Amino acid sequence: MCLRSPIIFCALVLGFNTAIAAEYLLSEEAKSLNLPFSEAVRVGNMLYLSGQLGIIPGTTDLASGGIEGETKQAMDNIKSILERYGSGMDKIVKCTVMIADIAEWPRFNEVYVTYFPGPKPARSAFAAAGLALNGAVEVECWASAD
């Protein structure tokens, strides 16, 4: 057995000699929309959420209220998905934000920060030429889970 790589050595010492299976998660509510993706994927103790638009649960209708309303709905959708699968907002470690109009960035942030009263997750953001369903914002998160 070759132990040239420190990563391979650590994996063998710690007993990680099998791949961790991915579990593709989709609630009944999300299934009813017949969209071509899982709402989350669990790998070990991590949840990887698909990007969430500000859509009203069980529909493809965007929440009213412009960027603020859509941001609140997207964040509430993220919170619901995390709680459904044994996690929570305080366990988010990374978010990626796609925003249709970067000029609305300050208004997005006013809502976003209310979901993280303590430490803030790492975050990346970029402006998008267009989002699904003509949304104003989409937020994707990674979180640890029990």
Q: Your description of this structure?
A:
- With 146 residues, the protein is an alpha+beta fold.
- The protein has one domain: 60s Ribosomal Protein L30, Chain: A (2-Layer Sandwich).
- It is built from 4 helices and 7 strands; from the N terminus they run H-E-H-E-E-E-H-E-H-E-E.
- Strands 1, 2, 3, 4, 5, 6 and 7 form a 7-stranded mixed β-sheet that branches.
Summarize, please:
The protein is an alpha+beta fold and 146 residues long.
Overall shape: globular
Low-confidence stretches: 1-13
Total individual domains? 1
What is the highest CATH level, the class?
Alpha Beta
How would you classify the helix and strand content by structural class?
A: alpha+beta
- Percent of residues in helical segments? 25-40%
CATH topology: 60s Ribosomal Protein L30, Chain: A
Q: Please identify which CATH superfamily we are dealing with.
A: RutC-like
CATH architecture level-2 label: 2-Layer Sandwich
Q: How many helix segments?
A: 4
SSE order in H/E notation?
HEHEEEHEHEE
Largest sheet: 7 strands, mixed
Query: For the terminal residues, how far apart are their CA atoms?
Result: 35 Å
Q: Note the beta-strand portion.
A: 15-25%
Based on DSSP secondary structure assignment, what is the total number of beta strands?
A: 7
Radius of gyration: 18 Å
The overall average pLDDT, rounded, is: 89
